[in-house]
């Protein structure tokens, strides 16, 4: 079964950070995933932080390129 998730705003944020040089594709960021899985076991990314931030939510460290690719893929699958 195919699903989609609207990552348009997050993708725009990442694009802007890449353009101004705050992040590059090899940077690591912290992502927060939903506690609730959508269809199957996919838990969408609900927020992200710079790796030097310390959010209260549980996070996972991920490379910007991997996060960007996931968001692009899930943003278009229906």
Task: Report on this structure.
The longest helix has 13 residues, at 8-20. The model has no long low-confidence stretch (mean pLDDT 90). The protein contains 2 helices and 3 strands, in the order H-E-E-E-H. The protein has a 3-stranded antiparallel β-sheet. It starts with 7 loop residues before the first helix and ends with a helix. By secondary structure, it is α+β, with helices and mostly antiparallel strands.
End-to-end separation: 9 Å
Number of helices: 2
Helix content: 25-40%
How would you describe the shape? Answer: globular
Structural class by SSE content: alpha+beta
Tell me about the largest β-sheet.
3 strands, antiparallel
Low-pLDDT residue intervals, each spanning 5 or more residues: none
Q: Return the domain count.
A: 1
What strand line-up does the widest sheet have?
Answer: 2-1-3
pLDDT averaged over residues = 90
């Amino acid at each position: 079964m195919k699903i989609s998730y609207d990552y348009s705003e997050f993708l725009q944020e990442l694009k802007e950070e890449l353009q101004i040089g705050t992040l590059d594709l090899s940077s690591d960021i912290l992502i927060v995933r939903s506690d609730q899985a959508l269809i199957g076991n996919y838990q969408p990314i609900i927020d992200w932080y710079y790796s030097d931030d310390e959010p209260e939510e549980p996070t996972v460290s991920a490379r910007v390129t991997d996060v960007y690719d996931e968001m692009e893929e899930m943003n278009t699958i229906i």
